[in-house]
Automatic annotation (TrEMBL):
Its EC number is 3.5.1.1. Residues 3-191 form the L-asparaginase N-terminal domain. PANTHER family: 60 KDA LYSOPHOSPHOLIPASE, L-ASPARAGINASE. One of its GO terms (biological process) is asparagine metabolic process. InterPro entries: AsnASE_II (IPR004550), Asp/glu_Ase-like_sf (IPR036152), Asparaginase/glutaminase-like (IPR006034), Asparaginase/glutaminase_AS1 (IPR020827), Asparaginase/glutaminase_AS2 (IPR027475), Asparaginase_C (IPR040919), L-asparaginase_C (IPR027473), L-asparaginase_N (IPR027474). GO terms for molecular function: asparaginase activity. SUPFAM superfamilies: Glutaminase/Asparaginase (SSF53774). Keywords: Hydrolase. Belongs to the asparaginase 1 family. The lineage of its organism: Bacteria, Bacillati, Actinomycetota, Actinomycetes, Kitasatosporales. Residues 207-313 form the Asparaginase/glutaminase C-terminal domain. This is asparaginase. It catalyses: L-asparagine + H2O = L-aspartate + NH4(+). Substrate binds at residues 53, 86-87.
Length: 343
């Protein structure tokens, strides 16, 4: 246990009624006041922003990333909690994780019900996130998501419920820990690629777009994004990563122009795989698309963004993207749920 810094960014956990709907307007101290702080933890709040997370931009996410690194420059800090809107939490958490090289945990959390809801889930989620961030056994696990009594690795974790309390899960994996009876019970150690350095402060922000394949889809929207200046594209394909010969030709042409193309699927779980031709993943990969394993659209886009920020060179961007999306080796379940908050 020790000092945990809460970085407040807004979201439902900080939202109040605005007359026609809810919007984030509460400061971090107001959010913290709703939660029980675990024994032995002291908390400092950093108010970074207060917005609904659907409005976040790459510039906002870079500001969050740099704030995390600035906070961790203080050796007296034992962990960080980021309160964040659930709409894009999976993207921001993965973005920070790809650049997180410190053993101290960074734990994202939020809420499905607004700040002043009588039965709100925010207070429990924030308590659990503080406990997780202050637990020594969680060191070295990278960026985490604490929600509804479970702790997930940032990588692969997406929002799976629009309204229900159990909003987050990794459809292709399992939680790394549970929070129960005031303890963090570790299940497994997540595997992560080597972290990237911080993007340069003055680096131009690349346009990265997402296009979904469907029956009757043609390359029109994909090509329009490329013509609009996209430096990276995510193709959300069907099945294990399949489209049409026309789309495969558009992908090959975009890659030849230096556009970074990632291939994911609209299926909730399972990996993208080279099985089918005639526009399938076999042809898309041959045309230069990078298969993203079990990463889904939002996080595949973040991987492309981080690769684009890492280098101006197309070949180097592709190399970095392949490194970021490579399937981690499976992590073994722990023999027993023995790690807890007394550490």
């Amino acid at each position: 246990m020790g000092q945990v810094v809460v970085i407040s960014t807004g979201g439902t956990i900080a939202s109040r009624w605005q007359g026609s709907g809810f919007a984030a307007d509460a400061r971090g101290g107001d959010v913290l006041a709703t939660a029980a702080v675990p024994a032995g933890i002291s908390v400092r709040v950093v108010d970074l922003m207060s917005v609904n997370s659907a409005r976040l931009t790459t510039r906002d996410q870079l500001a969050l990333l740099r704030t995390v690194h600035e906070v961790l420059a203080d050796p007296g800090v034992d962990g960080i909690v980021v309160t964040h809107g659930t709409d894009t939490l999976e993207e921001s958490a993965f973005f920070v994780d790809l650049h997180h090289h410190d053993p101290r945990p960074v734990v994202f959390t939020g809420a499905q019900l607004p700040l002043e809801a009588a039965d709100g889930d925010g207070p429990r989620n924030l308590h659990d996130a503080l406990l997780t961030a202050g637990t020594a056994a969680m060191r070295g696990m990278g960026v985490l998501v604490a929600f509804d009594g479970q702790v997930h690795a940032a990588r692969g974790t997406i929002k799976v419920q629009t309204l229900a309390a159990d909003a987050f899960a990794d459809p292709s994996g399992s939680p790394v820990a549970d929070v129960k009876d005031g303890r963090v019970l570790v299940r497994r150690q997540p595997e992560r690629p080597a972290p990237l350095p911080l993007p340069q402060a003055d680096a131009p922000l690349p346009r990265i777009d997402v296009v979904m394949h469907h029956c009757d889809a043609d390359p029109l929207l994909f090509n329009a994004a490329v013509e609009a200046g996209a430096q990276g594209m995510v193709l959300v394909a069907t099945g294990a990563g399949n489209a049409t010969p026309e789309v495969a030709a558009a992908v090959e042409a975009a890659v030849a122009r230096g556009v970074l193309v990632a291939l994911t699927t609209r299926v909730p779980s399972g990996p993208v795989a080279e099985i089918y031709t005639q526009g399938g993943a076999v042809d898309l990969a041959a045309g230069g698309a990078v298969l993203t394993g079990t990463l889904r659209a939002g996080q595949a886009r973040i991987a492309v963004l981080s690769a684009a920020l890492a280098s101006p060179d197309a070949d180097e961007r592709t190399r970095v993207l392949r490194q970021l999306v490579a399937a981690p080796a499976p992590a073994a379940e722990t023999a027993s749920a023995s790690a807890h908050a007394s550490a």
